[in-house]
């Protein structure tokens, strides 16, 4: 299986007036095509730092980062512009990159129709629920046709029930569109339900404490909600809970 992302011997140290702050130490992992990989770890363990390196916002102190394809970034907040319609919000990346063509607009229209947002295309963000806004944010990220999606705690601003429903939507869209994704979270259940693979980071300076291939079989189409009901789900949860060494980790 083709590696979309391969990180080798990655180290990150920040230099401040108080001295050196070592954040990442000899990090190694890979993301294969079509896979959802979750980075799970305590707050401050460098999860978002890894994403910043992958988006080239930050240069690593040392190590190798190989990315095969275009990267799209979905933030914690939807960052929708309230004065633009849903369609105009979704196409803003195409405008900025000067890629707003007939072909790209057809792709956006297909996404809107496929994922039940077509009827809302002329509405404004304030008219949508929090869950729908996150779906719009994902479609906006997909509009520029990235190969790899980086998701930085994309459900953290939602209430518990909504985040479970939206995670189903996001999972389905990623899988249906054949994208590869890296999800950052500190929610164990979210990580298990969404992922094909989980890497667990230690406290700072973070090392890769363990890697888990998640194999949960459900009846019919696999979704995060269905995986939470599989008996083995609790087994994964118990293992991951023991590995995480921070009281900040949420159940």
TrEMBL record:
Pfam families, per the entry: ABC_tran (PF00005)
Domain of life: Bacteria
Residue span(s) of domain ABC transporter: 5-228
InterPro entries assigned: AAA+_ATPase, ABC_transporter-like_ATP-bd, ABC_transporter-like_CS, ABC_transporter_ATP-bind, P-loop_NTPase
Keywords: ATP-binding, Nucleotide-binding, Transport
A single GO molecular function term of this UniProt record: ATP hydrolysis activity
Entry-linked PANTHER family: ABC TRANSPORTER ATP-BINDING PROTEIN, TAURINE IMPORT ATP-BINDING PROTEIN-RELATED
Protein name: Taurine import ATP-binding protein TauB
Taxonomic source organism: Romboutsia ilealis
